[in-house]
Amino acid sequence: MAVVQVTVVPVGSSKASISEHVAHCLDVLEGTGLKYQLNPMSTVIEGDLREVMEAIAKMHESTFGEGIDRVITAVAIDDRRDKELTMDGKLAAVRERRGK
Amino acid sequence: MAVVQVTVVPVGSSKASISEHVAHCLDVLEGTGLKYQLNPMSTVIEGDLREVMEAIAKMHESTFGEGIDRVITAVAIDDRRDKELTMDGKLAAVRERRGK
Amino acid sequence: MAVVQVTVVPVGSSKASISEHVAHCLDVLEGTGLKYQLNPMSTVIEGDLREVMEAIAKMHESTFGEGIDRVITAVAIDDRRDKELTMDGKLAAVRERRGK
Amino acid sequence: MAVVQVTVVPVGSSKASISEHVAHCLDVLEGTGLKYQLNPMSTVIEGDLREVMEAIAKMHESTFGEGIDRVITAVAIDDRRDKELTMDGKLAAVRERRGK
Questions:
Q1: Least confident of B20-24, C25-29, D15-19, D96-100
Q2: Are C1 and C87 in contact (CB under 8 A)?
Q3: Does the beta carbon of A77 lie under 8 angstroms from any beta carbon of chain B?
């Protein structure tokens, strides 16, 4: 299991808003059944690394079209093998350290 | 106002866990009074861009010491001038598009 | 064709140097036959997006082992469909703009 | 001394090409006198971390205007304190490991 952060940015869209594209990417992601969390800068996905990367490829691909000819996608993969890595587990570890 | 995502990673720490360092960075960030949200891959901060970048410099700096001689910090700045950009506003725009 | 930037960072390696791991990743990448350029912060790879992502998965995977239980990999994909995107073409476009 | 990677992306530019903006950012960076290298995905800058971050703030700021109301800037800071970190030194360490 890996935890992966992704941000998909359409380039040359003629408007500063990209929420329409983010919403469309999330619809695509939801179709994969993978567990995810949206935050104000990215979407964090948890699961088998290969499945997560397939999902990200679909999100990236789905952003082309309707005037969008260029897409820049940033991905950060956090992959740990000595213990199971989950979104909830990562947050809990930090909260426990802070005594909260 | 900008919305900025930051991830601070200590290198050469001799253990796979980094939650102790993330917790320490959040203590430093909390001292600045800036609004922020922790997620499983990064911390998202909102505010005047210069103040946010000062806070990130402090978080980065505070990670050195106690055996840590190298720190890799990733930052993504989202800065919009035609309307006010906030963490809540960004999430609300996506949710509205998805009809949720 | 896409142009993709990748940085693979081992966590908990007990030493600040990671050049050994970068060198190993480049050996793995060279085995794929894809065109690439190393720079001081990342490796830039050019090619069919699916093939490039397969190569990055191999680079990431090859970093585990010999005491490394956690790997953080950052990827930035630049994918353009209205004209062919290449590493040389991108650099040439910027140089031409600067009159150099 | 730190080595820092930066990519500045204008959003809503109405055209897929961004080389004009990259060229302008490099002109701004050249004005700072800092040592840098352009690659197909980013610009890598070497120097005192505070000076480099000031330069990046200028590059980011200079991208607004002439129809650009939103700029997304990605930064990766590599900062090492047990030995001097330079762009050339990082590349040499990897090349030496690979026996080239």
A1: D96-100
A2: no
A3: no
Interface predicted TM-score (ipTM): 0.96
- Specify the residue for token string 């890799």: B72
Which residues 1-60 on chain A approach chain C with CB closer than 8 angstroms? 11, 49-50, 53, 57, 60
Number of domains chain C contains: 1
Beta-carbon separation of B53 and D49 below 8 A:
no
Q: Is the dihedral of CA C93, C41, D52, B1 positive or negative?
A: positive
CATH of the domain at B77: 3.30.70.930
Quote the domain boundaries for residue A42: 2-97
Q: What is the pLDDT of residues C26-55, one digit of tens each?
A: 999 999 999 999 999 999 999 999 999 999
pLDDT number for residue B100? 67
pLDDT at A100: 67
Q: Tell me if residue B51 falls in helix, strand or coil.
A: helix
Chain B hits for C74, CB-CB cut-off 8 Å, are 74
Q: Is C40's CB within 8 Å of D16's CB?
A: no
Decide: pTM greater than 0.90.
yes
CA B23 from centre of chain: 12
Q: Say yes or no for a CB contact (<8 Å) between A12 and D17.
A: yes
